[in-house]
Amino acid sequence: MKLEGLLEGLNYTLVQGSLDTEVTAVENDSRKVREGALFFCITGAVFDGHKYAKEVAEKKASVLVVEQDIDTAEVGETTIIKVPSTRYAMGMMGAAFYGHPADELTVIGITGTKGKTTTTYMIKAMLEAAGHKTGLIGTIETIIGNQATPASHTTPESLVIQQSLREMVDAGLDSVVMEVSSQGLMLDRVAGISFDYGIFTNLSKDHIGPNEHKSFEEYLGWKAKLFTLCKTGIFNADDAHYEQILKDHTCRVITFGTKEGADYIAKDRKLYGKDGRLGITYQLEGKCEAKVLVSMPGEFSVYNSLSAIAVAREMGVPLDRILSILTDIHVKGRVEMIPISDAFTLLIDYAHNAVSLESILTTLRAYEPKRLVSLFGCGGNRSKDRRFEMGEVSGRLADLTVITSDNPRNEEPQAIIDDIRTGISKTDGEFVEIIDRKEAIRYVVMNARKGDVIVLAGKGHEDYQEIKGTKHHMDERDLIREILEEEDVTKICGYHNRYFS
Fold first, then answer.
1. Which residue in 89, 151, 422, 501 has the fewest CB atoms around it within 10 Å?
2. pTM greater than the 0.90 cutoff
């Protein structure tokens, strides 16, 4: 492909070379550059791609895209394009290199502090129930047909996104649902993508710090940017920041919530619990009417399902198929129930900080369990404050806390547990310490009582334990299965395996 064909719509200066230069690949990782590749010099928090200009030129890269002046003598006759922002250029040029694949798909983007992951899976399932072939890009994985690739970022780099979208088109997919983080918007990872639908779930203080957003106002502003990039916006009208998110929108507006005036309204919300399974029911009113049962616990499941219903209905999915999906929905590591008993509830959740742990424990407490059991650990080489805070939250909200190991990295697991104990000791909460996570899970399963709700918190979708720089395979679902194979299951309260059979 000729360089000139990649530059449409960009403000650029040709520093040296020719627009007729042939480009065989696009890269922002100097290690991947081969002869004929175009290299984007990205200015990052740790690395500056401009420092690798000479190296990639020596590898016979055909083009350098820069946003700073570089020493042309070091790169010989390599074509150089200068732009105001190499990140923005990377998104736009990546889209052109891969043939603008987003234009061949119905693209659904979801932003917000919470609920993005669960909502993407809800929408994917609903669309597929109606015959759509749907891809997914999110926190857990990227799914293209039957292939799933673990994710490293909520919103990947733009070149990765564009390549994935091209693979989706080539595989015959017609739609994609993706999580769009504030960082992804700020770093132009979705530049070059026109969204058909944008969804706003909710907003709370998060991702504010030296390496993320300087302030809550900045965080909000980047979230709102999605609604200048989409054709139709679907908004949680109950959220306190709804009006601010909506302020500069350029899209058609659809709303959901629990109050009159929204397009999709949830009324008469009731918690649902039966045979160890938890969920919520409500009456759907507004653009359509139905009795809805969501097989995931908590008020947040109402909002997640409402946003999914809204986009699915806009895309013509029959209501009966939507309702069927919601009655059996589960998302790996997001209040994921592991039904091994009719007498107690066992679930896995990604809650890995004090805010998310408080949220899930408060949600589960509303179901009035006989005992609420919280099992968690904290990662090594991270702030000790998180350990103190999580310990205090669990001690305050759970009837029993089981402190265990979770990615100790280069720290001693017992030292981390000691810090958690410092927090929990500020409360009257009962706790036990079991370093080995499998043994900790064995303890809560074999000692479960009728009416218990047990949450294994912190790992969620993760399938590894990081110890001394090495990631060892460890999936909590595998651990539970092994425990059931090793133990006399007749001793498990109300044992009725509906998960591993």
1. 501
2. yes
